[in-house]
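Two folds, back to back.
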Amino acid sequence: MSAEPRELIALPLIIVVGFAIVASVWIGGNGGDVSWIAGMVNALAVPALLLGLLLAAGAAILSAL
């Protein structure tokens, strides 16, 4: 079973957004400041998508061999 390229591209972004959701619920639930989380997601979204593209390209190369 191999992953589809769309799944490989989206996986790092899903991890970043999931981390942000968990952090905001955990920190916000304890009365902490969560204003930095939106900035973190914005800063990590593009690198996460680039990592996903690299994963999809690597998987395409390996499946072509």
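---
second:
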Amino acid sequence: MTTFQLLITICVLPLMLLTGFYLYRYINQKLLASETWAQIISFGLLLFVSIAATLCGGLLLMAWLYRLYQH
């Protein structure tokens, strides 16, 4: 059973990392090019929420796949 868990982790972890990295680069570029305070605040919050959603989504996907292949 631990072989499946390791395989799932090896498959999902790079997806999470790559998605987080490219989200960070894209939104951080928008944040640095911001001209108003509203843009700075909104892109900052968007950056935080998008990275958190990516990590939570990846962890939930791993948990769901663990449970799916457990039975």
